[in-house]
Every structure is written in C-alpha cells, then in structure tokens.
C-alpha cells in the first residue's frame, strides 16, 4: 500500500524438516513482503507449509525444523533500522517477539493456559514485554478487553468459562497487548461459527484501522480472504503459486491451482456455479516431483511443466503491477482445459 | 411414545418436505426432545420438539451453529442417546433402540459418520479391521474369503482404489480425505437405509471437500440412502441438499427447499447466518456491512435484500446459544433485530409459510415480506 520499505520482508526463505526418511521441504524459496497497515492473506491447504512459514519467520520452530536459506528483515517504526530476524540472539529475539511481531494461534483452547484467569494471562504478557506497574498493567488488561468487546467482568474468568469466540477474542487482545506492528493470525476463526467468525473478522478490521498494524492472515479458506485481505498469496506444497491483489485473484486468477481453489467452495451468494474441486492429493514433500508440484493435479499440465522454473514472475497482461504467478504457461486469459474426462480419471486413481 | 402435542406435530407436518419427491419415507423424527441435567436444578434443553422426515435417495441438511443441538439430533436418531420424549419411526414403525438387541438392529439400518476422521478410527487397527467387524456383525458373513471380498468391494465403492493397497494400512498412514472414505465404507458395511453424516467434511481441506461431498452424493444415489447432512456451512447445504432445516437453540426455526431457503431466508436467524457467510463478490470493506451506518443501500425495497444484509443484533457480547437463551419466548429474541415484547414472552411455533416452507417467527411480515408475498403470488 505504501511505497515505503515493507515492515516484514521475507526473501528466498526455505525451511526443511529433517526426518530419517529425508528432508521434508516444507517451505521452499518463498518471497513475501508485508507493508504497514496491510492485510496479506496466505491461503493454502493443510501441509502446504503456511503455518511453518509463519512460525519460522518468528523463529518459533525447533529441530527437526531447520531454516536452510533466505532472509527475514523486520523494519518497524520503533526500530532504529532494518533487523535481520535470522541473525538475532535469544535476548533480541525476546524483544522482537510479541513486542514487534505477535501471533494469534489457531486453537485458543490450547493456546491459553487453563489454570490462569484472563487477567493473569494478559498481565503476564505485559510484564514480560513492557515496563509497567502492576496497577497500570491491570488497567491495560481491562482496556484490552474493552477493545475486543468482552465485558470487564470477565477478567477473572478462566478459559473454560468462556465460549470459543470469547477465547479467540482474548487471544487477539493478548496479541495486541504490546502494540505490535505485525500480527500473524494463524487460522484465528477456523474453529468458530460463521456468525462469530464474521464478528471477529469485522473487529480485526476495525482494530487494524485504529491501531495500524499489518496482518499476515493464514487460512485454508480462500473465500474468506477474498473479502478480508488486500493481497493474497496462494501457497501449495511449500511454494508460492500466485500473489496478487484480492480482486485480481477473484476475477483474473492466473495459476491453475488458484483457479481450482476458486472452483472448490460452494458460494451462498449469486447464481449456482458448476463446482469442480481439485482431484488428487498434494505431493509428498520428501520426494517432491521435479518441476511444478501441482502438475499431477493440474488440468493444464504439459511435459514442459516437469522442468519449469517455479520462481514468481509478473503477469504481464495484468493491470496489477504486483500480480505474480509461478506458472509461465497459464495466464488469466488462458481458457480452461476440457476437464471432465481427465479429472474423472484422476479422481478414480486418487 | 408420548402423545401430547399431537396438534403441533400435525401442523409442522403440513409442510411438504422438498426431499419427499426423491423417494419413499425412510425415517421420521416426531417431536424429538432431549434434556440434559446439569447439576441439581438446571436442565439444558438440547433438542426441543424437533420433527422432520428423511426419504430414500434424498438429502436433508440440518444447519446450525455449535451448541444448537444438531449433533444431539443425530445421536438421538442413531440410538446413542435416549429420548426425553418424542418418537423415532423407521419405515413407519416406532423404534426404541434402548435395549441391546434393538440397538444392534437399529444400527444395521441407521449409520452415523462422524466429523473427525482422525479420532473416529482406531489408531491401532488397520483399515481391514475397521471394515471386517461390521461386515461380520451386520451382514452375518462368516468365511474369510467372503469377508475379504466384501471389504474390497466396500473400499472400491468409496473409491479407495486399488483396494488391496489400503486394507493393511493404519489410519495414520492415510490422508484426511482417505480416512473419511474409510469412515463411509465402515458405515456402508452395515447396508444401512439411513446415513447420518455429522459434519463429514468440515475437518477436510477445501480442495478435498468437494470430492468427498460428491462421493457422498454418489453413494446416496447408488444405494438410495436417506441422508441427513449435518453442517454449520449453509453454503454447502445449498449445493448438496434437497431440504434444509435450520436449527437454533435446540429448535428448528426454519425449513424449506435448499435453494429457496438460502436465497430468500425468512427467519431472522437464517438471514443472519446467510449474511455471515463469506461473500467473495463483496471485495474489501465488505466486512463492515453489518453496521447499519455502512450497510449498502437496499435498492427499491424498504427492507434489506433477503440474500444479504439482515439488520443485526448487537453480538459484541455474544455468547453461545445455550448460555444466551431467554427463559421464555423466542430463543433468538435476545439477538433478534425485530424482537418485541411478544417475542420475549411467547415462543413462536414452526408454522407453514408456503406449501413447502415453514418458519418459527412472529414477525415474518417485517422480517421477510417477500417470502410471504411469494406465497400469495405463487400459492397454487
């Protein structure tokens, strides 16, 4: 959104999981930038590496996960200059985490401590990362609950006394406790009902407008991102397949995988569409196929795909200068292939 | 088994199910009620006076938020919970699956598929083990060869091909979609007439869901299964079901043909549900659409369009339905933008709105005038 340097700049970033059966290449040369005040959506199926990417960026992963390459540069307004997150020592990391980059985890039930009440959990965070008196911290905790729309009387509640939506709101309140510049949200609403999900998302958008943090929003639900995100990165088998503004993804999708995803969810609004889904299953990342990882499930595939270079290139025909795709063969204007015969055959094999 | 409230049953059954055209009646739920005791004096009314019917070869979707009682309905129908009152009928005859032998007979007609294929399969047993047991128990097959060929046939029916490659596998060696296919195969092993699928795809990836749903649809056609599809995703119900039942706080608040109900919801809760579903065409900024100040102008009509922005209750201090219930009156009244004193005092009954639709609301005239108008226009 702003022409300035991004708050978080991920370059050629790779993460593997060391296993006896070989390295699982969970994140493979990913390039992604997050600008101040921007919502970037990271869409992908389970196992596509989206959570691994998010956690590795904060260096939250332990062995057998290993960052094998690339750089992560953080540049906040409070920071003096750009910081290379991958070079930080443990003390500096502590200062970066939560203070600068906070995470809202998927499962609030597991992420909250069941034996501490809401007040203690929030003040814990505040004391760990900010200099504040006990009294101030209590005030801050109360005002954070106001912020996410939970009555202050709930400060003394334990997680099991809260509904799922409330727990998730507490998680968001905790993430915002230290006024971070980047908030990573890992499927924050997946376990919630649609009505509650909608409330929380609307609240996130409001808070973002008010406080100005940037959001990396991770989800498997592309339909949600289309509405929520400014830009969307589609991830498959550890690699980015396509990055573009939400409207571009919606109306001018280039990559076959993005097209497949868009054709996978039933929509409630508008006319009934023919849904196709994506036959087959994602590849085993221990033995990634050569070339494009999506090839076995792709309706457009040719022999050239086996040797294709998967780096993101700009879509020349697109009005969006930042519309990038990993597939050099299929462009937004490419017509869909004849699917029925091919996909039915693949489906039975899968 | 209880006969009170017969008048109400009759009224709610005035509506012709959109699923009835598909095939003969298979299972009927008549005024199902289930109370759970919580401590000494509290009672949770998990399911209240729920009536509907399942037909062979048809899909009925039960839609609602968590805590609305939709899974309890499935457990009642499957005989896993005892009814507080009401009756379950299979092929017209009342069943009481509370005794052991009756439960086993019931299970061979009515099978349940659970949401989570990660916990519904036993991690220490192979796929073969999971399928052999029901084949022996319900089909009475004895010989090893017979059982083995039946297991292979089941796996092929759920498109786990070649079957031989899957029989020896353990659940952890399978993907989520494959596990759910094994769950389907296990349910089919009993040769049921009714399949209750409790959120069968909500744990799966988006790109896999459609395949599993179309498999389910295929099985429904092939075996003329009467299918109850329980989901929180009303959009999938639109594509998949013949009839949709919307449940709130243990009650059915609206029912009708899937397309009609999702495009022109009548009950304020259904309207909220439909408006809350992600709308990809509503790019950017759409998330604010609930707030009256920023809601899009609603065309020529004075009312908000039925397919979108219902006026909404303040849900900032939202609590799950069970905890936020009014003591009396309409259960949705605390959240309903149309609620008035009558709603807070008297619980509306599920009454026919059109020949195929019913809704439980006192204020359909202001909540959904176009649905009522549609009835007068196309009443015949």
Question: With helices defined by DSSP (H or I, 4 residues minimum), what is the helix count of chain B?
Answer: 14
CATH fold group of the largest domain in chain B: Rossmann fold
What is the H-and-E element order of chain A? EEEHEEHEHHHHEHEHEEHHEEH
State the end-to-end CA separation of chain B: 36 Å
Describe the global form of chain A. Answer: globular
The CATH homologous superfamily of the largest domain in chain B: P-loop containing nucleotide triphosphate hydrolases
Q: What share of the residues of chain A lie within helices?
A: 25-40%
Number of strands of chain B: 12
What value does the average pLDDT of chain B take? 82
Largest interface, C-beta within 8 A: A-B, 52 and 52 residues
Work out the number of β strands of chain A.
Answer: 12
- Can you tell me the CATH architecture of the largest domain in chain A? 3-Layer(aba) Sandwich
Q: Identify the CATH class of the largest domain in chain B.
A: Alpha Beta
Description:
The complex is a heterodimer of chains A (350) and B (380). Chain A folds into 2 domains: 8-234, 3-Layer(aba) Sandwich (Rossmann fold), CATH 3.40.50; 249-349, no CATH class. Helix content of chain A is 30%, strand content 21%. Chain A has 11 helices and 12 strands. Chain A has 350 residues and is of the alpha/beta class. In chain A, helix 5 (134-147) crosses helix 6 (164-176) and helix 6 packs parallel to helix 7. In chain A, the strands form 2 sheets. An 8-stranded mixed β-sheet of chain A has the order 6-7-8-3-9-10-12-11, sandwiched between helices. A 4-stranded antiparallel β-sheet of chain A has the order 2-1-4-5. With 380 residues, chain B is α/β, with parallel strands linked by helices. Chain B has 2 domains: 6-120 and 193-248, P-loop containing nucleotide triphosphate hydrolases (Rossmann fold, 3-Layer(aba) Sandwich), CATH 3.40.50.300; 264-357 and 364-377, no CATH class. Chain B contains 14 helices and 12 strands. The relative contact order of chain B is 0.13. Residues 1-12 and 288-324 of chain B have low confidence and may be disordered. The interface between A and B is large, with 52 and 52 residues.
């Amino acid at each position: 959104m702003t022409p300035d340097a991004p708050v978080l700049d991920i370059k050629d970033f790779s993460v593997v999981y060391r296993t006896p059966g070989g390295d699982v290449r969970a994140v493979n040369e990913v390039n992604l930038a997050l600008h101040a005040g921007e919502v970037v959506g990271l869409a992908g199926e389970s196992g596509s590496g989206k959570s691994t990417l998010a956690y590795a960026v904060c260096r939250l992963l332990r062995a057998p996960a290993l960052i094998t390459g690339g750089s992560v540069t953080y540049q906040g307004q409070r920071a003096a200059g750009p910081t290379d997150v991958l070079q930080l020592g443990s003390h500096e990391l502590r200062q970066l985490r939560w203070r600068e980059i906070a995470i809202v985890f998927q499962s609030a039930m597991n992420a909250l401590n069941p034996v501490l009440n809401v007040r203690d959990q929030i003040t814990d965070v505040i004391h760990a990362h900010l200099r504040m008196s006990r009294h101030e911290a209590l005030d801050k905790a109360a005002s954070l609950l106001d912020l996410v729309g939970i009555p202050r009387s709930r400060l003394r509640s334990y997680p099991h006394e809260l509904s799922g939506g409330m727990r998730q709101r507490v998680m968001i309140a905790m993430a915002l406790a230290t006024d971070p510049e980047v908030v990573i949200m890992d499927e924050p609403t997946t376990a919630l009902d649609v009505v509650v999900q909608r409330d929380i998302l609307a609240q996130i958008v409001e808070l973002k407008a008010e406080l100005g943090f940037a959001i990396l929003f991770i989800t498997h639900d592309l339909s949600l991102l289309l509405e929520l995100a400014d830009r969307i990165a589609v991830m498959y088998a550890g690699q980015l397949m396509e990055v573009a503004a939400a409207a571009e993804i919606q109306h001018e999708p280039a990559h076959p995988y993005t097209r497949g995803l868009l054709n996978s969810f039933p929509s409630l609004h508008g006319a009934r569409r023919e849904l196709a889904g994506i036959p087959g299953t994602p590849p085993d990342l221990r033995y990634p196929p050569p070339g494009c990882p999506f090839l076995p499930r792709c309706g457009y595939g040719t022999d050239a795909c086996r040797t294709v270079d998967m780096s993101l290139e700009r879509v020349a025909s697109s009005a969006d200068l930042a519309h990038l795709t990993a597939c050099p063969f299929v462009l937004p204007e490419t017509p869909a292939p004849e699917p029925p015969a091919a996909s039915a055959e693949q489906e039975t094999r899968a | 088994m209880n006969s009170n409230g017969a008048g109400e049953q009759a009224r709610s059954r005035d509506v012709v199910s959109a699923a009835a055209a598909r095939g003969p009646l298979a299972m009927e739920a008549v005024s199902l009620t289930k109370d759970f005791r919580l401590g000494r004096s509290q009672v949770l009314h998990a399911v209240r006076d729920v009536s509907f019917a399942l037909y062979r070869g048809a899909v009925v979707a039960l839609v609602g938020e968590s805590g609305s009682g939709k899974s309890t309905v499935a457990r009642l129908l499957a005989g896993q919970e005892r009814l507080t009152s009401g009756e379950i009928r299979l092929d017209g005859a009342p069943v009481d699956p509370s005794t052991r032998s009756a439960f086993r007979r019931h299970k061979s007609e009515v099978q349940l598929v659970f949401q989570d294929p990660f916990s519904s399969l036993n991690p220490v047993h192979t796929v073969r083990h999971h399928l052999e047991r029901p084949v022996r128990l319900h089909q009475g097959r004895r010989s090893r060869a017979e059982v083995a060929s039946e297991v292979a046939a089941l796996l092929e029916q759920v498109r786990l091909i070649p079957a031989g490659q899957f029989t020896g596998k353990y659940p952890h060696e399978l993907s989520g979609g494959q596990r759910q296919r094994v769950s389907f195969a296990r349910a089919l092993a009993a040769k049921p007439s009714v399949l209750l699928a409790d959120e069968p795809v909500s744990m799966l990836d988006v790109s896999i869901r459609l395949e599993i749903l179309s498999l389910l649809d295929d099985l429904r056609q092939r075996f003329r299964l009467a299918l109850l599809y329980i989901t929180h995703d009303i959009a999938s119900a639109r594509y998949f079901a013949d009839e949709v039942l919307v449940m709130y706080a243990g009650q059915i608040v609206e029912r009708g043909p899937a397309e009609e109900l999702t495009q022109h919801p009548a009950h304020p809760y259904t309207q909220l549900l439909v408006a809350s579903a992600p709308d990809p065409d509503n790019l950017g900024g759409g998330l604010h659409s609930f707030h009256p100040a920023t809601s899009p102008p609603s065309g020529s009509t004075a009312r908000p369009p039925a397919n979108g922005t219902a006026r909404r209750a303040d849900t900032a201090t939202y609590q799950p339905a069970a905890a936020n219930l009014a003591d009396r009156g309409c259960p949705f009244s605390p959240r309903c933008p149309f609620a008035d004193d009558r709603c807070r005092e008297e619980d509306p009954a599920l009454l026919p709105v059109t020949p195929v639709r019913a809704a439980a609301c006192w204020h359909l005239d202001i909540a959904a005038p176009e649905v009522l108008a549609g009835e007068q226009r196309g009443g015949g």
